[in-house]
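queue> pop job 88
queue> type: inverse folding (structure -> sequence)
queue> payload:
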């Protein structure tokens, strides 16, 4: 698929992405997540597409036991990922600071996803 030409509704960098039930299999430590033109795209740290799906085929929720610093995302027919979006340069922080920046990043990600889902639901 060709790259999207539009401006992303959300662009997260410094994203930790894991696969499987509970995201236990690490895929990338410094990936990206984009929501653009009604599609969610997960990228590796090398810029390769890990997975993609229309936002209308995506479900996401906060993992309660991570205090909201990780979101579980299911794409299409049940492909599960854990996504931890960090904010700014706080990627290198540890402990409480890392949880707090993860919560802010994931909150923005989940809000943008929900807005795009509402936007594309009627199409």
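queue> result:
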């Amino acid at each position: 698929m060709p790259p999207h030409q539009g401006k992303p509704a959300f662009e997260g960098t410094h994203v930790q992405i894991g696969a499987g039930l509970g995201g236990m299999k690490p895929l990338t430590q410094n990936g990206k997540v984009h929501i653009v033109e009604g599609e969610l795209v997960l990228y590796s740290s090398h810029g390769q597409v890990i997975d993609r799906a229309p936002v209308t085929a995506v479900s996401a929720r906060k993992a309660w036991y991570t205090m909201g610093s990780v979101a579980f995302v299911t794409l299409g027919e049940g492909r599960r990922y854990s996504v931890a979006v960090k904010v700014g340069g706080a990627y290198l922080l540890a402990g409480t600071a890392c949880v707090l920046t993860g919560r802010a990043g994931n909150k923005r990600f989940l809000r943008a996803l929900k807005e795009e889902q509402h936007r594309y639901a009627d199409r």
